[in-house]
From TrEMBL:
Species annotation: Halobacillus alkaliphilus
Protein name according to UniProt: YqzM-like protein
Keyword Transmembrane: yes
InterPro entries: YqzM
Residues passing through the membrane, by range: 20-42
Superkingdom in the source lineage: Bacteria
Key words, A-Z: Membrane, Transmembrane, Transmembrane helix
Lineage, highest ranks first: Bacteria, Bacillati, Bacillota, Bacilli, Bacillales
Length: 44
C-alpha cells in the first residue's frame, strides 16, 4: 500500500475543502469589487 495513504493528514472530504476555497475567494474578490464601486459612486 502507498505510504501516504496510511498516514492521512486531513480526513475531511476534498469536495468540501475545494468548495470552501471557491466561496472564500469569490467573497474576497466581491468585497474588492464592492469597495471599488463605492469609491466610484462617491467620486462622481
Amino acid at each position: 500500500m502507498n505510504e501516504f495513504k496510511k498516514d492521512i493528514q486531513s480526513k475531511t472530504n476534498d469536495v468540501i475543502d475545494s468548495g470552501l476555497g471557491f466561496v472564500f475567494s469569490f467573497v474576497f474578490f466581491f468585497v474588492i469589487f464592492a469597495i471599488g464601486v463605492v469609491f466610484s459612486v462617491i467620486g462622481q
